[in-house]
Write a structure and sequence with these properties.
The protein is of the alpha+beta class. The chain contains 1 helix and 4 strands, in the order H-E-E-E-E. The chain has one helix at 5-10; strands at residues 20-23, 30-33, 41-45, 48-49. It has a 4-stranded antiparallel β-sheet, with no helix packed on it. Strand 1 (20-23) and strand 2 (30-33) form a beta hairpin. It comes from Kitasatospora kazusensis.
């Protein structure tokens, strides 16, 4: 499920306030921080971004 583009325009990483980019497909959609020093990956569950730093994972 793809998020609407207007939503991606206003969402930012809660850790570093950099823009977020959508990655993944279908039920495995994630939002990846575009900040060079941060790079956290936030899950999207049932079409709702979970923008909690405690729920994010570091990229592998």
């Amino acid at each position: 499920m793809s998020l609407p583009s207007f939503l991606l325009d206003i969402l930012v990483c809660p850790q570093c306030h950099a823009a977020l980019a959508e990655s993944g497909q279908g039920d495995e959609t994630e939002l990846r921080c575009t900040g060079e020093s941060c790079g956290l990956v936030y899950p999207v569950r049932d079409g709702i971004p979970v923008l909690l730093v405690d729920e994010a994972r570091r990229p592998s």
